[in-house]
Amino acid sequence: MKIRDLESPFIELRDVRKSFGTTAVLNGVDLAVGRSEVACIIGPSGSGKSTVLRCINALTRIDGGSVRVGDTRVDDPRLDTQALHRRVGIVFQGYNLFPHRTVLQNVMMAPIQVLGRERGEVQAQARALLAQVHLAGKENAYPGELSGGQQQRVAIARSLCMQPEVMLFDEVTAALDPETVKEVLGVIQEIAADGMTCLLVTHEMRFAREVADYLYFMDQGRVVEHGVAKDVFNAPVDARTRAFLDKVL
Fold first, then answer.
1. What is the fold of 11-95+165-248?
2. Is the pLDDT of residue 229 over 70?
3. Which of 79, 105, 157, 180 is deepest in the core (most CB within 10 A)?
4. What helix, strand, coil percent values describe the chain, rounded to 5?
């Protein structure tokens, strides 16, 4: 499926292919996200959605095609992976917080250790970010003392503290109970509203409908349909998209 025509996409995948052993996971994926745009990838389990995110952040190396973030060719063998990770934040459904460090320490670690930033500056930013994700007052708590939704919001603040240009969210509410899903999605919505470029893999269709500017539907490692989110939700063209949305809406 031909990639949509953006004058200058910030994220661009062209004919991306990836196999694990003999299993083809991505079969020629084209995808583009504009700066300050919010795009969602939806589709059935096993369709390759999460692998797309991992390819963008160079956590998974592609077998063919090209991936670009800004002026960085992610598929370049000489890629500076650390520099890419400064530009591209990613949050998974698993929080991966350090249990024996406080919330504040978890958020501050990477900017100090990876970027070499000054501790006082990072601490001020970390406190501001924790307030932004509605966790003011939890700075000295430990992850085990927080709910799943609170831990996920710490993970989001930790990623934002690296001052990325784009945020990737991979099914970040999948492990949460229904009561805490809303609070995490609310935080993501606020981040998007502030102008952050966001690409989300999500099974929360109501949220995707509310927040996404653009939508990609994937099935069997391919982009089957893409378009302005409200158009795809209201009038899907492909039969596979219609069948999927009929099941989940």
1. Rossmann fold (3.40.50)
2. yes
3. 157
4. 40, 25, 35
